[in-house]
Structures are given as C-alpha cells and as structure tokens.
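Worked Example 4.2. Consider the chain below.
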Amino acid sequence: MSRRVLPYRVPSEAVVSADHWRLVVDDGEVPLPEALPDWDYQMDLRLRRSVRVDLDRARRESGLPTGAALMVSAVWTATGSNLSGPAQHIRLAEAGTTTVEFDFGLRGADLGGLLLLDTALLLSQRRSDARPSSPRRAGSVLWSDREAVRLQGDAPQFPMAVIDFARTSFPDDAAWHLHISGGLESATMGSLLLLVNERNKTTTDAFQRAARPNPVDRIVLSAVYADAARIMVEHALSQEDFGEDADFPEGSLGATLLSLVDQLFPGQSITDIRLRQRQSAALFASDLQAAVKIFGESS
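Applying the procedure from the previous section yields the following structure tokens:
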C-alpha cells in the first residue's frame, strides 16, 4: 500500500486513537455499517465518533512548539450527488490528552452513492516561526483516516438534490432538472443527478412523501419518472457508440441506459428504436409515455 509523503514532519499514527463512526438510530446507536440497503433520499443521517488526541506528543513529533493550535475536522463527500462539505471542526488549544466528540447530521437529499467520511488532525493557524521541516500552513494535515458507507436505497432511481433554482442557470419556475454528465463508461452514480427546485412545493412535497404518496404526489412522481426516462433514453440514442453489442462496465452509465432501454422496449433492437425516434420524435415521445405507463398504477 502506498503512503503519501508530506513535505514536513508528521507524528506517528499512535498520537490519535479514533473510534469507529456510529450511526444514531431510533433506539440508540449502532456501528456504522459498510452499506445501508434501506437508505433513501428522505433518510437523514446522524453520525457520532469519539477521537482521542495526545496533543503534547503530536506537537513534539511534528516539531511544533508547545501551545501550537491544532484542530480535528470531519468532512463528508457523497459520490452520488457530487456534493461535499465540512461536518464539524473542533479546535484544540490545551495540552495533554483530550477526547473530542463528533456529533452531526447530514441531509439525505444531499447524499447518494458512496458516503466518504474523512477525519483529520490539522494545524489550525499558520506559523511564520516554524522550523523548515515542521508544518507551517494552516490546514496542514498531521493525521487522517477515512471511512465509507454505501447508500444503496432503491427508492431514488438516481441521486438527487433539492436546491433553489433562482441561484442557478435553470428557469426559476422549473420544477426539476435531470443533469447527465460524463461518458457512457462513467459511473452511473456520478453521472446522473436529479435537481428538484425547492421553490416548487408540490414537487418537493411529493418527494418527501414518496414512501407514502397521496394521489397528487403519485401524479407528480409519475411525471418526474416519465420525464427522466425520456431524457435518459434520448441521451442514450444520441450517442453513436450506444448499441446492444456495446460492452459497458457494470455500474456504468452505458450499462444503466442499456438496462433502461431494454426494460422500456423489450425485444426491440436499439437500431430500430433509434430510427423510430429520428423519423418521428413526437410519436416516439408517445411511445415512451406508454412504456413508462405514465399516471398508471405501476408508475
């Protein structure tokens, strides 16, 4: 296993003792598992962790003076939504050994795919008087580790995020937008992102109640699914290398689109489907409505 070599002294791994992350549930806490198969975007996560730091030893082995300000930080990254952010920062100025407790929540709407949790011991303030071999920049990493949990819920068909469209280039009054990026070989969870406009209460309410939708929610969710399916199929057919003979990696965007097209148009060749779409886009749109059973019981 390779190890990153930093241009300054760092303490030994033993200066930090970190417990595993814990997931807060209704009746207490459980160790954070490798995967949450029942997760969906409505499920917010609350996480806790205890970290013990030998501050005197950390400073000494890094060549830092007594009293140098340190900090422990937790940062999260979600591969499904392509979002990340600071979870919690705790400043450490005292001496001796100290124990800090991380305790924070993450919105389910911001997550998806693989959730990465990075914990680090950092130099919190720049030191102009540091030795050449010692860390001097604020944010210099003295110790770090990473844990990951796969969010495998079946409820969202793709990662999603609720945002204010007024702060984007999308029309203020649009209800949703399916963003597709990357090539057909790219990972699906990093290539698809459903953006829902938080200003459209009807749509956001429908997704919040997706587990138990009312009649209006079912109509909204059916419309979103039908529109997303149309965008994905049209995107697939626009790619010249998209065909039934293509060999896309498992979990890739190409493999996902092949599966979707096969589900919606069983027994039909992609060549025939592409030809029909190019000859009559309006009729093909009706074909898609029928295939997804828009506003039907199974939508």
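Helices lie at 55-62, 188-191, 201-208, 215-237, 253-264, 270-279, 281-292. The mean pLDDT is 86. Compare this with Example 4.1 before moving on.
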